[in-house]
Amino acid sequence: MTPSSSSRRALAFVNVAHALDHYVLLIYPTAVIAMAADLGRDYGPMIALSTGAFVAFGLFALPMGWLAERVGRRNLLAAFFFGCAASLAGLSASTTPTAIAAWLFALGVFTAIYHPIGASLLVSHASALGRSLGWNGVFGNLGSAFASGGTALLASSLGWRAAFLAPAAVCLAVGLAYLAFAPAEAEARAAGPKQAPASSVGLRIPVLLALFAAALIAGGMTFNITSISLPKAIDERLGLDVPLAVTGALATGVFLFGAMTQLIVGRLVDRVPLPTIFVGLAVLQPLGLAIAATTGGAPMLAGLALAIAAIYGQVVVNDAMVARYAPPHLRTKAYSVRYFLGFTASGFAAPLIAVAHAAGGFGLVFTLAAAFGAVIFGAAVCFLVASKPAAVQASSS
User: Fold this and answer.
1) Could you tell me the CATH number of the domain that includes residue 156?
2) Looking at the predicted structure, is the pLDDT value of residue 360 above 50?
3) Is pLDDT of 314 > 80?
């Protein structure tokens, strides 16, 4: 197998894994609508059971970079496929809050593997960083998009247990194919993306890191609040009495809009300084969330679509920043820290949604998300100012 074909095969599995990662983690926010009705429980306490999953999703990303040095990135990605399959199967058989919370936590642990390992593998095999990140982002967003629609379809036609079992079977099958056909890590490309020279950032490094960290934490909150709330917000505030399958289809449409944005952002990454893209996307997040907070029906959907597009476009920029500025030998660990910051705090989005929804409905939920979006915008503007000399030199390197 030539290095080129080997890298294409590796990228294909990394992209499929990204789609599955987001799909399986977002099954529960839609399935819980049917589960709550079937088990005779309220939405608020039921959605709060997913807190452990989303906290683990971020918390367990941190050790993955160090673990990869000991067991290998390929073995960890295989564990992702099989662990997700086992966790989903366990959820399909659960009826008590304790069992549901336990299996959701296990699912969070295994889904935490993907981002630091998958992003590192992608950068190792990519020939065009922005394009590869853009397509990888599309796959992730397709997973998010079809999680709502696919779960709603399965739950309404075959029951909520099937909504967990069917993707469990897919994860198992892809995991077996990965072990059979994925190239060994030694076949990764030797050269990664060009790095910004150290002199281009100089003494600004602590400031840039602090601003980037603040944006990652706030961005994780807008990401999770919006993604988790989307199906129920449509169900509650669309203004039409529609079945669950239609609710899921509308949520899927919003996520698909965000997916297409990542292709555009991926192309921009190869042409425009990253801090400039950062600011452009950051201003759209609080704008879209403010529209969603103050409206209903079609305007609410438009606001959510705008916010989702900006949020997911930001993911491409964040990954590109790590790829451009982290030394190759530290890149997997850097991605571990990046996703730890982005996802750990955001794991508390589920209980925040439950409390805010009880106090003021989704108007309050999206207002809080818009506040986090404003933090991202402030950090982005400061990052642009602080990194301007670095951006000029990096773009010319």
Assistant:
1) 1.20.1250.20
2) yes
3) yes
Q: What is the 3-state secondary structure (H, E, C) of the chain?
A: CCHHHHHHHHHHHHHHHHHHHHHHHCHHHHHHHHHHHHHCCCHHHHHHCCHHHHHHHHHCCCCHHHHHHHHCHHHHHHHHHHHHHHHHHHHHCCCCHHHHHHHHHHHHHHHCCHHHHHHHHHHHHCCCHHHHHHHHHHHHHHHHHHHHHHHHHHHHHHCHHHHHHHHHHHHHHHHHHHHHHCCCHHHCCCCCCCCCCHHHCHHHHHHHHHHHHHHHHHHHHHHHHHHHHHHHHHHHHCCCCCCHHHHHHHHHHHHHHHHHHHHHHHHHHCCCCHHHHHHHHHHHHHHHHHHHHHCCHHHHHHHHHHHHHHHHHHHHHHHHHHHHHCCHHHHHHHHHHHHHHHHHHHHHHHHHHHHHHHHHHHHHHHHHHHHHHHHHHHHHHHHHHHCHHHHHHHHHC
Print the domain residue range for 350: 3-184+195-396
Residue 154 belongs to some domain of the structure:
yes
What does the longest C-alpha to C-alpha distance in the chain come to? 61
Residue owning tokens 């609710």: 247
The per-residue pLDDT for range 115-170, each reduced to its tens digit, is 999 988 888 877 777 888 888 988 987 887 788 778 988 998 999 999 999 999 99
Asked whether residue 189 is domain-assigned, the answer is: no
Region of residue 387 (phi > 0: left; psi between -120 and 50: alpha; otherwise: beta): alpha
Q: Which amino acid is at 291?
A: I
For residue 144, tell me if it sits in a domain. yes
Number of domains in the chain: 1
In tens, the pLDDT along 251-282 reads: 778 877 877 888 888 889 888 888 899 999 99
Which tens digits make up the pLDDT trace of 155-169? 989 999 999 999 999
pLDDT of residue 392: 45
Q: How many CB atoms lie within 10 A of CB 102?
A: 17
C-alpha 25/C-alpha 65 separation (Å) is 21
Look-up of token digits 């201003």: 283
pLDDT tens, position by position, 290-302: 999 999 888 998 9
